[in-house]
Amino acid sequence: MYQFADNNDNKETVFTIKAQDLKFGVGALRELGPDAVALKMKRIALFLDGNIQDGEPIHRVKKSLKSSGVDFEIYDKAVCEPNTTSCM
């Protein structure tokens, strides 16, 4: 087994990862707008594949954000390994 460090290296080998809360389940998309408001978000960027933009889940996301008064911009033309030009 490969060792990254041992006790003789006097290196820090313990680290902490703080996991974010995840929300999933029936109705979770309807809660996006209220959750964004609770986080004091005013404007959101939605990065989507152009093939899913007209799907029902995305309509639910947009409806939730609109009804909560959260502005959003859809970016569906980004490319793999995007640069600043492809995202503007």
UniProtKB/TrEMBL annotation:
SUPFAM superfamilies with a match to the protein in the record = Dehydroquinate synthase-like
- Output the Gene3D superfamilies linked to this UniProt entry: 3.40.50.1970
Task: State the protein's name.
Answer: Uncharacterized protein
Organism, scientific name = marine metagenome
